[in-house]
Structure formats: structure tokens, C-alpha cells
Design brief:
The protein is built from 10 helices and 12 strands. By secondary structure, it is α/β, with parallel strands linked by helices. It has 2 domains: about 250 residues, TIM Barrel (Alpha-Beta Barrel), CATH 3.20.20; about 60 residues, Winged helix-like DNA-binding domain superfamily/Winged helix DNA-binding domain (Arc Repressor Mutant, subunit A), CATH 1.10.10.10. The strands form 3 sheets. It has an 8-stranded mixed β-sheet. The longest helix is centred in the middle third of the chain and has 14 residues. The radius of gyration is 19 Å and the shape is globular. The relative contact order is 0.13.
């Protein structure tokens, strides 16, 4: 077996300091931008493969090998998180990956970040019941806003999605979170928020999180909700937690030894400022800035100015 430092990782990334989950090892089992939705705010860019087909998009054997190589030394982690730039529940082998981790590495908690669109299928619901945390995104309850903001696959119906999430909530006994992403002028009206509040009341999640744009979104017209308004909406939505930028408190070793490779893998999954990258990769800010300059100059990445600073991303995300 290859040593950890010799392994080229394709399906795991981090650990990263997650603003939601602490020290999190990312597990990215879906090809880049393969998703059931094409959300206008997505920090990873437009969906290039809009689908609801479940299949083995990435090889289970290779995923397990990467996990075994990285986890065998017993790294300190708060979570292993199914996430990335696609919808994890599209992978037909997610149950097998969960079972492998729970059997071989039971000391680690497992989380899933999902858009919740496939839980109207009872098999999909049953496959993820051994997870320790599920965080579902739900941005609209009215069909019009759902289609404008989330741009779903044509076979998806909002009513069925909500029913599926409700059904999951009844059987999932671990931590259950819901995140609402607000787009100014779209799903922040009193009418929409009232209906979102009603659904949240029925779901009774353990935590409600409220988010808005602070990185470049897919569409340039997407605007964040004003901070004061965001706070007022959070109070209305059962004292929801307003997600703020997470500052790492740990020294975190990155997976990849090659710094440019690791930097590119980081901005591929989400646009970052130089400060973000320095914290995620636990390296000196001046080093990050030098590499960003070189990668921008040779066309590997590009940049966009936002209120929080200059964000860097791979070119195809613009």
C-alpha cells in the first residue's frame, strides 16, 4: 500500500476548518458539478451535468483505498463529511461507503451535506440512516422561487422533495439540520418566509442555519441580503443561526504535499480569499499570495472582488 504522503487523493480533501462542523475531512464522491439542481448562488459554478440518475459515479474501491490510507494513522477529526461540488446522494454506493467507515473507523462521526432532492425515494432515505448528522438545504417553498433560485432537473417536483424530507425526518434519529440560503429580492419576502417557517415548524430540525452570498455565486445578479435584515429574518425563523466566516483554531495539515496542487483543489471546490486559503491549508499568508499571483498569471485561476475581499477560483467557474 502506498504511504499517505505518496497517495494522490482524488476523492478526499482537507481536513478543512469548517464553519459548521469544525475539523472536517471532505469526501467528494460525485464528479465536479454533477447535481440535481443548478442553484444560482452556487460557489462552485454552474451545474454541467444536471441529473437525477443514481449510479456509481466514482469507483468504490478507489474511494475506500483513499480513506484507508488517510485514516489508518488515526488523524484527529470532528467529522468526515460527504460534500464537494455535486449532490452526494446521487452516488448509488453511498450506503456501502458509510458501512465501510462505520465498520473500519467507528471512532469518526459522519455528516452529509445535501440538497435533499432525492429523499422521496425510500431506498435513498434508508441508505443514510447510520450517519451522525444530515444537513439539508431548503431555500424555497413556493414553486416559482424554487425554480428561479435552484433551477432543478425537470423530473423534480417541489412537493415531492418536501414530502421526502419530511419522511426522512421521521426516521432519522441523529442530528438533523436545515440551512436556508437567502437571495435578495427572491426568497426574502414575507410571503415566502412565512411558508418556509411553516415547513421548519413541521420538520423541527435540531438546528436552523441562515446563509446568504459572501463568495462569488454562479450568476452575477445574485445579491446578498442586508446584514440587519438577515438578523431579523433569523429571529423570525425560530432564532436561526446566521452563518459567519469560520476562523480555524487548530493547526491543520493538508492532504497533498504539492502546494499548488492542494491550492487548486481547494479553490476548485469553493472560491476563497487568500486569508481563507492560508487558514484552510495552515500556511503563511505571504506564501499563499505568491502562489496565487503565479497561478493567476499563468491562467490556472482567476479572481473576483467581493465585499469580503478578492476571491480566487478556477477559470471555468466564472
Amino acid at each position: 500500500m502506498k504511504k499517505k504522503q505518496d497517495m494522490v487523493y482524488r476523492y478526499i480533501f482537507g481536513p478543512v476548518p469548517s464553519r459548521r462542523l469544525g475539523r472536517s475531512l471532505g469526501l467528494d464522491i460525485i464528479p465536479h458539478k454533477t447535481c440535481t439542481l443548478d442553484c444560482v448562488y452556487c460557489e462552485c459554478g454552474r451545474t454541467t451535468h444536471l441529473t437525477v440518475e443514481r449510479k456509481e459515479y466514482t469507483p468504490l474501491g478507489r474511494i475506500k483505498k483513499e480513506l484507508e490510507t488517510f485514516l489508518s494513522p488515526g488523524p484527529e477529526l470532528d467529522f468526515i463529511t460527504f460534500s464537494g461540488a455535486g449532490e452526494p446522494t446521487l452516488h448509488s454506493g453511498i450506503k456501502e461507503i458509510i458501512r465501510f467507515l462505520k465498520t473500519a473507523y467507528p471512532e469518526y462521526k459522519l455528516a452529509l451535506l445535501t440538497n435533499g432532492t432525492l429523499f422521496n425515494n425510500s431506498d435513498t432515505r434508508s441508505e443514510i440512516l447510520d450517519l451522525d448528522l444530515v444537513k439539508i438545504s431548503m431555500d424555497a417553498v413556493y414553486k416559482k422561487n424554487f425554480r428561479r433560485i435552484n433551477r432543478p432537473h425537470r423530473d423534480l417536483e417541489l412537493t415531492g422533495i418536501i414530502e421526502g424530507v419530511m419522511a426522512l425526518r421521521k426516521v432519522f434519529k441523529k442530528k438533523f439540520w436545515v440551512e436556508v440560503f437567502l437571495v435578495s429580492g427572491y426568497n426574502d419576502s414575507d410571503v415566502e418566509l412565512k411558508q418556509i417557517r411553516n415547513v421548519l415548524n413541521m420538520l423541527a430540525p435540531d438546528r436552523i442555519q441562515l446563509n446568504t452570498l459572501d463568495r462569488p455565486g454562479t450568476e452575477p445578479w445574485v445579491k446578498p441580503v442586508d446584514a440587519k435584515v438577515l438578523t431579523e429574518i433569523a429571529d423570525y425563523l425560530y432564532s436561526a443561526e446566521v452563518i459567519t466566516y469560520f476562523k480555524a483554531e487548530h493547526n491543520i495539515q493538508t492532504v497533498a504535499e504539492d502546494f499548488d496542487e492542494c491550492l487548486l483543489a481547494t479553490v476548485k471546490r469553493r472560491p476563497c480569499t487568500a486569508d481563507d486559503i492560508a487558514r484552510v491549508l495552515d500556511v503563511d499568508l505571504n506564501l499563499v499570495q505568491r502562489h496565487l499571483y503565479a497561478l493567476t498569471k499563468n491562467g490556472a485561476i482567476t479572481q473576483k472582488e467581493m465585499p469580503r475581499g478578492i476571491f480566487y477560483m478556477i477559470c471555468q467557474q466564472i
